[in-house]
Amino acid sequence: MTFQHAGIIGAGSWGTALSLVLAETLPRVTLWGHNAGHVESLRADRINRNYLPEIRLPEPIDFTAELDDLAACDLLLLVTPSKALREVAARLSTVTLREDAVLLSCTKGVERGSGLRMSEILVECFPQHAIAVLSGPGHAEEVAQRKPTAIVLGCRDEALEAPLQQAFNTAYFRPYTSNDLAGIELGGALKNIFALAAGVSDGLGLGDNSKAALVTRSLAEMVRLGVALGGQRETFQGLSGIGDLVVTCFSHHSRNRAVGERLGRGETLSAIVSSMNMVAEGVPTTYSAHECARRLGIETPIIDQTRALLDGTLSAAEVAANLINREPKRE
């Protein structure tokens, strides 16, 4: 099997960056956006001025605001905000897709209330289709600039691993494979929470020692909760775990780290969110992960303190003090 036509559902920065990757390996790529005016601008200018204004989109990429235009695609990437994925998937399920179409989740999050991962939502909506996931340390800005990037593709059907790798393998984009969908998705989702906390550390000016300790303990917390939720321990030591955690906690491209930094400097969450044109997935994921941890009885001090900060019940300084003054214990 060789993929011929990819449909990318979500014309934000990550969806656009992935369309650039696939345009190098596939004959056809169609980028779908929910805003017809934005799509018309993409078609006219071949530049995504809202998200990647310095990158020209090559001719193999088509643009549409109609999900029906994706009916002939054999590979469908869902690159929506996590809170919108179920709604968009439900709309897509009304389209008569190819029977062999593979759906690939590129969204990092956990659904609030249900605790479902994004691929589990897709399984509910598309029970007859193969479902895969993509995650890892990939900032859209750097991928669009063709800077070397490695990610991981998760798929339980071994026959699909090679075609998926072939579709994403370029001179600068290196895809690894794994069958641990749970671990891949949980690493990609939970790291956004810890990036918020890392940003708070930056905003408070706590220094390198503090941030290194925070990121290290974040990995321990990620593994503890991620394994309890079904992920394999070794997956969190890879690209979708520690790899994504490091880049998101330290990069100036990271929306979640930037939100945390502004919280650390005393801005309110509502003011920060209203000033952004992109979603910081760490905010909704904090609530979802906190719910999952309480249900399973898993100790998650960083997630707990981050939620208290987002709720406004604790200040950034109080959160930092609570974490550093926890009772001493063995590592």
In short:
49% of the residues lie in helices and 15% in strands.
Record the SSE blueprint.
Blueprint: E1 5-9, H1 13-22, E2 28-32, H2 36-45, E3 47-48, E4 52-56, E5 61-64, E6 75-78, H3 82-92, E7 102-105, H4 118-125, E8 130-135, H5 140-144, E9 149-155, H6 158-168, E10 173-178, H7 181-204, H8 208-228, H9 239-250, H10 255-264, H11 269-274, H12 282-296, H13 301-311, H14 316-324
Parallel strand pairs: 1-2, 1-6, 2-5, 6-7, 7-8, 9-10
Antiparallel strand pairs: 3-4, 8-9
Strand elements, count = 10
Share of helix, binned: 40-55%
The class by helix and strand makeup works out as: alpha/beta
CATH architecture of the largest domain: 3-Layer(aba) Sandwich
CATH-defined topology of the largest domain: Rossmann fold
Low-confidence segments:
none
Morphology: globular
Q: What's the CATH H-level homologous superfamily of the largest domain? A: NAD(P)-binding Rossmann-like Domain
CATH class of the largest domain: Alpha Beta
Using only C-alpha atoms, the radius of gyration works out to 19 Å
Order of helices and strands: EHEHEEEEHEHEHEHEHHHHHHHH
Residue-averaged pLDDT, rounded? 97
Content of β-strand: 5-15%
